[in-house]
Amino acid sequence: IDSVTPRHVFRIAFHFGLFQFMMPIIGWLAGSAISTQVITFGHWLAFALLCLIGGKMLLDTRSSTGKKVNADPSRGWLLVALSLATSIDALAVGLSMAFLQISIWLPSVVVGLVAALFSTVGITLAGRVLRRWGRVANLVGGCILILIGVRIVISHQA
């Protein structure tokens, strides 16, 4: 993206908030029917998605010698993949809350709103950073996504 507009901020914050709101509810509704599979493989799915997206960012940074990369994280499948990858753990939380027979609605609303708020702040700041640092910011962003994926796997191994 050349510059971050309010429209970009809204789309990203809305989708991140929506996915963070929906995933615990989906997990809660699914209950124990798929709990073993999600708990066993969910972190690997999040890891794979984050590494693929982060790796693509690194490759785009490396291969872009002066040319602009037109990947817009506020649109299409990239936005869906980022929203999904960052909310898979919320699915497992929803499953856990179903086992404990705890209502999921209030926690889901709070998490969704907080995710949207933090996304708004993060994307707004990222726009300023990208204008100044551009390629370096994309390189760091790709590394951060990969590290988040690694952290998810490590936290599930303990």
Question: Roughly what percent helix?
Answer: over 70%
Element string (H = helix, E = strand): HHHHHH
Number of strands: 0
The biggest beta sheet is recorded as:
none
Q: Rg, please?
A: 17 Å
Helix count equals 6
Strand content: under 5%
Q: Which runs of at least 5 residues are low in confidence (pLDDT < 50)?
A: none
Tally of discrete structural domains: 1
User: Helices and strands: which structural class?
Assistant: mainly alpha
Distance between the termini: 38 Å
What overall form do the CA principal axes indicate? Answer: globular
Oligomer: single chain
Mean pLDDT across the residues is 81
Describe the overall structure.
The protein has 158 residues and is mostly helical. The protein has one domain. It contains six helices and no strands. The termini are far apart.
